[in-house]
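Justification of resources, computational component.

The compute hours requested in this renewal are based largely on the per-chain cost of generating structure records like the one below. Each record pairs the submitted sequence with a full structure-token output. That output is archived, and it is also reused by downstream analysis tasks.
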Amino acid sequence: MNVFAFDAQKRIVDVRIAHASPRDPAIGDNELGGYDYHGGGWHVPAAPVPSDGT
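The structure output for this chain reads:
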């Protein structure tokens, strides 16, 4: 699933892509280094996600 957000001038200001695949707990957080997830409106868990993905 791809979701695009546009500004008043119809320019893309945010792209969110979701894949229907399980998270790989062996590689740690599946996040972009340095991206401000909280500032971008994404839910940021207070604690690490358990290895079983729940």
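Strands lie at 2-6, 12-17. The chain has a mean pLDDT of 77.
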